[in-house]
Specification:
There is one protein chain. This protein is 29% helix and 22% strand. It has a 6-stranded antiparallel sheet. A two-stranded antiparallel sheet has the order 6-7. It has one domain: Alpha-Beta Complex (endopeptidase fold (from Nostoc punctiforme)). By secondary structure, it is of the alpha+beta class. The longest helix has 14 residues. It starts with 5 loop residues before the first strand and ends with a strand. The radius of gyration is 15 Å and the shape is globular.
């Protein structure tokens, strides 16, 4: 794994299974790998934390940064990895770190309607004050120039886990960027 790569998560619980059925996808959550001090971490937005946030040391909902290795060990479900190609340059790594610091601690968007509308591309652009998982990941990729912004691309609020899994292959990447195949971790 390297900074900028994508993780897809498939949880094993009633809520996760309901989301997977609704989206017709095995994936119900996404996260982006970031460089953190001397290691790798995950930037994610979640309503069901499984690892302590690296800033507070507590299990918390919303946008957080968690140790990548700890998430991989503790997660009850399947995790797949997709690499970003080409690898991010130093300027993009810096922008990604700055983005993580700016959104860290913001609340999880708990609206079930918002998530459902994202699947059908019916949301207005996000406010940047709350995030559901794929909205956060799409915002991060748009911020560092990997995904197109509107009007050429789509709103960060209109991405769902199947989009990042390659099941729809309509991510709207900028020229030259692609995601590798899914590899189970």
């Amino acid at each position: 794994m390297q900074p900028g790569d994508l993780l897809l998560l498939s949880g094993r619980g009633p809520l996760e299974e309901r989301l997977q059925r609704h989206m017709q996808s095995p994936w119900n959550q996404t996260a982006i790998v970031i460089a953190w001090h001397d290691g790798l971490a995950l930037l994610e937005s979640t309503s069901r934390p499984v690892c302590p946030d690296m800033k507070s040391g507590l299990l918390r909902t919303g946008v957080q940064v968690v140790a990548a290795g700890e998430k991989l060990r503790r997660y009850n479900g399947t995790i797949a990895h997709r690499s970003i190609n080409p690898a991010l340059c130093e300027a993009q790594l810096q922008l990604l770190s700055e983005f993580a610091l700016c959104v860290w601690g913001l609340p999880f968007n708990t609206s079930p309607y918002y998530a459902a509308r994202a699947l059908h591309r019916r949301n207005q652009p996000g406010t940047g004050r709350t995030f559901f998982c794929t909205e956060l990941v799409a915002s991060a990729y748009q911020h560092i120039g990997v995904l197109l912004r509107q009007p050429e691309g789509r709103s960060e609020s209109n991405y769902a886990p199947p989009d990042f899994a390659g099941e729809t292959e309509c991510l709207c990447p900028t020229a030259g960027y692609a995601f590798g195949p899914q590899t189970l971790l």
